[in-house]
Write a sequence for this structure.
């Protein structure tokens, strides 16, 4: 099973003072990347208080979406290099991290992988037991 939850605030630059026309073009590019990506359970791109926000969420029983999801998350940062956000994943088929959530942090459009201090280890933090 592959579970994921995340968000990205889309910005052209880290200054937070983006040209509206440029931001519109970047959002269009991110929207095309979403359309071209494989089927992901929940992907929502919308404007909130004049700021574009991208949200992810879902569960894939076989983990087939994991690569496509990480590619899409990373691509959003490449297209809009001022963007920031977090993506939390748990892949029980990952032999090195099957009892851990992983966190992908986007800052200034760059994605890095981190350990999760909040829900890891999955057992006993959120599940009584977990069979490895």
């Amino acid at each position: 099973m592959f579970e994921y939850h995340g968000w990205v605030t889309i910005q052209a630059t880290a200054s937070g003072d983006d040209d509206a026309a440029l931001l519109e073009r970047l959002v269009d590019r991110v929207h095309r990347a979403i359309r071209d990506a494989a089927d992901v359970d929940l992907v929502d791109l919308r404007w909130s208080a004049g700021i574009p926000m991208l949200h992810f969420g879902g569960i894939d029983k076989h983990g087939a979406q994991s690569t496509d999801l990480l590619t899409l998350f990373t691509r959003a940062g490449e297209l809009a290099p001022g963007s920031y956000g977090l993506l939390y994943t748990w892949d029980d088929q990952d032999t090195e991290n099957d009892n851990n959530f992983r966190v992908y942090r986007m800052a200034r459009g760059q994605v890095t992988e981190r350990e999760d201090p909040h829900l890891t280890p999955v057992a006993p933090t959120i599940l009584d037991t977990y069979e490895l």
